[in-house]
Amino acid sequence: MSLPGEQHALALRDLVLRVLDRVDEHGVAPIVQVGHPALRAVATPVDGQLSSDELSRLLDVMHRTMRAAPGVGLAAPQLGLPLALAVVEDPGSPDSEASRVRERGPVPFRVLVNPRYEVVGEQRASFYEGCLSVIGYQAVVPRARQVRLKGHDEHGAAFDEVLTGWPARIVQHETDHLGGTLYLDRALLRSLAASDPQGARWLLEPSPTTAAQVLGFSLD
Length: 220
Known about the structure:
The protein is α+β, with helices and mostly antiparallel strands. It is 31% helix and 26% strand.
């Protein structure tokens, strides 16, 4: 007889295998959109539910899906999987001024298993963010400029590090997904803009100063 915890682990593994079976010819999985219950659930910690081969296959699909979107991060709940797992990768910005203002340098591909973060210091930064599960919109999100990130990589090695600037923003966004929080929950909603030519104007600014003036929100 299976115990409730074992039944949950088996159900979660079955869900993962079904997602892996549904990838397209490029190894890309569908990204669920806001309103899907997995995006509002607290993810289950990764704790041996998957074999090493199954975990490797899932991470490969997540990596391919993130790149194809394209995005700089993807959490398992965005594939409909309530599992505390995320991947991040950022090539950086071709705009040197935006890179400087946003403190955005390249982030090599990495895996975050059961990640959690703590805010370091009191400095905050406000920039536009989008989400692969909220297609068509972006909004300004005030976030901690610096965080302490803890968790494990795909090989089980622990990490404990302090991240600053855009890399800190990425891991906050992706780790929030694992707690059922979307960027819209933290956003300045007066800044909300569609992904059309007008909205793109705000994204091109290194800092959303003009958007704040025109749309009527504060960056303080």
